[in-house]
Specification:
Helices cover 52% and strands 4% of the residues. The longest helix is centred in the middle third of the chain and has 26 residues, at 49-74. The protein has 4 helices and 2 strands. By secondary structure, it is mainly alpha-helical.
Amino acid sequence: MYSSSKKAEPNCQPPHVLLLADAGYQGVTKIHPNSQVPFKKTKLHPLDKEQKTSNRTLSRKRMVIEYIFRKLKVFRILSERYRNRRKRFGLRFSLIAAVYNMELTIAGR
């Protein structure tokens, strides 16, 4: 999925947007300069303490986003192939996100 979208739209995110990615997207820093990717260790080059703390900080930030993706997958719009009209995907996704945001507001009271 990433390789096809990378070829189709290399600069799909505005440069001021911070992109948080996991270790599978190591090449995204070449495409999007304002991105954060965790450091990878190798057999010859283990991570130092600063890199480990940076990875933990990034992981904590991404955990919030991954939790929201999990909640959206409950509605099956992200977990399965979307079989309806493409024109309505954005509308339906926005409605589901609004329902989730409303759930968060009610739970926060």
